[in-house]
Each structure stands twice: as C-alpha cells, then as structure tokens.
Amino acid sequence: MSNDSNLVNRGSERKTLILALIAGMCGDALLSWMTMSEVSFSIFPLIALVLSVQALYQEYLRSPVSEDIPLVSLACFFVGAFGHSAFIKAQHPDSGSNFIAIMVVLLLMLWIGKKMGFFARNAE
Predict the structure, then answer these.
(1) What is the pLDDT of residue 11?
(2) Which of 12, 21, 48, 122: disulfide with 80, CB 3.0–4.6 Å?
(3) Contact call for residues 86 and 33 (beta carbons, < 8 A)
(4) pLDDT at 81 over 60
(5) Where, by residue number, does the polypeptide cross the bilayer (predicted)?
(6) Among candidates 67, 83, 71, 56, which has minimal Cα distance to 112?
(7) What is the H or E stretch that residue 21 is in?
C-alpha cells in the first residue's frame, strides 16, 4: 500500500515540477514581449500561464507536498524562465548574449537532478 501512495506522490511531484517549468517559460515569454521589440505579442503564453498557475494551485490544495518540492519547483520555474530567455536570445543574437542564461539553466538542472535522486548510487 505504501508503494502505491509513493507512486501517486511521485506523479504529483512531477506534475508540479512540469507546471512550474511551463509557468516559468510563459512568464518569460510575456516579459520578453514587453521588453524586446523583436518579440511579437501572442495570447498563448498568457493563456498557458494562467492555466498552469491555476493547475499548480489546485495541485497544492489537492495533495500534500514533501519538504524539498517547493525549492525544486522554484528551481524549475527559473529553468523555464532562463531557458526561454536563452532560446529567444539565440533567435535574436543582436539582443545580447545567452551564455549566462545557459550556465544558470545547466547549474539548476544539475541541482534539480541531485535533489530528485538521479545521481544517487544504486545499493545493489
């Protein structure tokens, strides 16, 4: 029984992290539209941001979170934001360098992987 609840909890954690990543990408898309003249307006990031934040709130109300998930989901939010920023700057090289954004994404992804247990040694 505890294994079933652990699988449900793991699925809920992954859902939270993916929604935080989507919210970060959409937030940066709206910020890029407001600050960069090369980026045109689209209603879809606004719709996706509202829906992802609403789903995050519903998931927060529905199931308890473990102690590491709030920090890891914040890191996923920043991965989405900095990742989208690096993507936009790769499309428009005259708007600046994307080196720092890529380094931040890589460091945060390593930290997320460590916190999620992807780098743990298997005790066999």
Answers:
(1) 76
(2) 21
(3) no
(4) yes
(5) 16-33, 69-90, 96-113
(6) 71
(7) helix 2-35
pLDDT digits (tens, 9 = 90+) for 13-22: 889 999 999 9
120: three-class secondary structure by DSSP = coil
Rounded-to-integer distance, Cα 79 and Cα 106, Å: 8
Give the helix/strand (H/E) hosting 43.
helix 43-62
Q: 64 falls in which pLDDT band (50, 70, 90)?
A: confident
9 contacts 63 by C-beta, under 8 angstroms: yes
Alpha carbons within 13 angstroms on the beta-carbon side of residue 61 total 6
Quote the pTM value.
0.86
Give the number of other CB atoms < 10 A from CB of residue 27: 19
Please give the structure tokens belonging to residue 42.
């689209």
Q: What is the mean pLDDT of residues 46-51?
A: 97
